[in-house]
């Protein structure tokens, strides 16, 4: 998380940056006691209630964040050298108490923006089409700095019927973190949440409600495991399990993919897919969640009994509970990302909305 900013600051090389808000907005760099340069922005049409400057850890980037005074926040991202230059911006978004974070390589910046900086009340909860209680908590904005492209993601928090607000536990600060891959960690007033990239446009979080855990095929809800013996048809072929399909897609080599497809068990398929003597496709890290989503979507679209089990979970949080995996699972102690659980809940929402009509793949 980026520390709170100030209206002036000094970099490690001695350069001083000052924020001057008047008829226009100016960021002034002073070097050696003399004004070196200034970068000017027009005064916002909606006005400005205040702003601050913050340097990135490397001091290559300068963040100018500001607010209107009408529950709106915005920012401008500036390169510090060799000359001051705007790299990107975000106009006013509704919300209060924005917080920011840079990825370690400073290629990504995260804005975490609650809708309100005051404790939320039960009267603010809404009901979705299924009667589930939820709150539009705020939004995330992931800004890819090199090409000035940003994505925005709404945060909807679901509660059980018994939920009551606890004002003593409320903290508007979300303590955001983002890694080089775009995975995000935020701390809500109720719990810390890990979100793996790519992040859904609408992030649904389930607080204080029923949690369903699964792992082994032979246990309750074991059918959610990719090892469960439910064949799927994808990419014009039949796959014994979703695990077979997922592991095979790690490779460009068709012969190796076919060998994984014909593996006698999902465990053998998994071992073959994890064999690092074989070269992974170059884009695997970027596409692996989409591949998993395709496999899970096909599995529940092509098996009516499984679809009924998934819908029967209602709005419960689904968790792959294992200490063996902190990415697809919860790490055993809840610190993991639980990406497979997130994929299952995403597919469940699609099915409930009638958006999962694929029953077979030709």
Structure description:
The protein is 17% helix and 34% strand. By secondary structure, it is of the alpha+beta class. Strands 9, 10, 11, 12, 13 and 17 form a six-stranded mixed sheet that branches. A four-stranded antiparallel sheet has the order 1-2-3-4, with no helix packed on it. A hairpin with a 5-residue loop joins strand 11 and strand 12 (133-144). The chain starts with 7 loop residues before the first strand and ends in a 10-residue tail after the last helix.
Topology summary:
Blueprint: E1 8-10, E2 16-21, E3 24-31, E4 34-42, E5 50-55, E6 61-67, E7 72-79, E8 85-94, E9 99-102, E10 108-114, E11 126-127, E12 133-144, E13 149-159, E14 177-178, E15 184-187, E16 192-195, E17 202-207, E18 211-214, E19 232-234, E20 237-239, H1 242-248, H2 254-261, H3 266-273, H4 284-301, H5 304-311, E21 317-320, H6 339-352
Parallel strand pairs: 13-17, 18-21
Antiparallel strand pairs: 1-2, 2-3, 3-4, 5-6, 6-7, 7-8, 9-10, 10-12, 11-12, 12-13, 14-15, 15-16, 19-20
Helix pairs in contact: 1-2, 1-3, 1-4, 4-6
Structural class, please? alpha+beta
Instruction: Give the overall silhouette.
Output: globular
Question: What share of the residues lie within helices?
Answer: 10-25%
Unreliable stretches:
none
Give me a quick take on this structure.
With 362 residues, the chain is α+β, with helices and mostly antiparallel strands. The chain has helices at 242-248, 254-261, 266-273, 284-301, 304-311, 339-352; strands at 8-10, 16-21, 24-31, 34-42, 50-55, 61-67, 72-79, 85-94, 99-102, 108-114, 126-127, 133-144, 149-159, 177-178, 184-187, 192-195, 202-207, 211-214, 232-234, 237-239, 317-320. Strands 9, 10, 11, 12, 13 and 17 form a six-stranded mixed beta sheet that branches.
């Amino acid at each position: 998380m980026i520390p709170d900013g100030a209206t002036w600051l000094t970099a490690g090389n001695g350069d001083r940056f000052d924020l001057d808000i008047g008829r226009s907005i100016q960021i002034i760099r002073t070097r050696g006691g003399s004004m070196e340069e200034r970068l000017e922005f027009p005064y916002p049409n909606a006005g400005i209630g205040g702003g601050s400057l913050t340097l990135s850890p490397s001091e290559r980037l300068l963040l100018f964040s500001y607010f209107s005074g009408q529950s709106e926040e915005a920012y401008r991202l500036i390169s510090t050298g060799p000359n001051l230059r705007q790299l990107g911006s975000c106009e006013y978004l509704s919300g209060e108490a924005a917080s920011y974070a840079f990825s370690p390589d400073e290629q990504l910046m995260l804005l975490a923006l609650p809708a309100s900086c005051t404790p939320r009340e039960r009267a603010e909860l809404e009901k979705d089409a299924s009667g589930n209680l939820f709150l539009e908590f705020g939004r995330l904005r992931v800004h890819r700095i090199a090409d000035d492209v940003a994505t925005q993601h709404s945060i909807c928090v679901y509660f059980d019927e018994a939920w009551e607000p606890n004002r003593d536990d409320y903290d508007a600060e979300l303590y955001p973190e983002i890694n080089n891959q775009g995975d995000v960690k935020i701390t809500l007033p109720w719990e810390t949440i890990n979100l793996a990239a790519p992040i859904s446009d609408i992030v649904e979080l389930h607080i204080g409600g029923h949690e369903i855990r699964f792992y082994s095929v032979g246990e309750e809800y074991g059918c959610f495991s990719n090892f469960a013996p439910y064949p799927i048809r994808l990419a014009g072929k039949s796959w014994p399990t979703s695990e077979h399909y997922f592991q095979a897609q790690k490779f460009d080599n068709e012969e190796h993919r076919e060998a994984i497809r014909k593996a006698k068990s999902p465990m053998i398929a998994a071992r073959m897919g994890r064999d690092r003597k074989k070269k992974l496709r170059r884009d695997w890290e970027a596409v692996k969640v989409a591949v998993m989503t395709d496999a899970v979507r096909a599995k529940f679209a092509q098996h009516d009994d499984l679809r009924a089990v998934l819908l029967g979970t209602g709005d419960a949080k689904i968790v792959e509970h294992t200490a063996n995996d902190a990415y697809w699972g919860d790490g055993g102690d809840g610190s993991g990302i639980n990406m497979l659980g997130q994929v299952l809940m995403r597919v469940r929402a699609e099915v409930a909305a009638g958006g999962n009509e694929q029953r077979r793949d030709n």
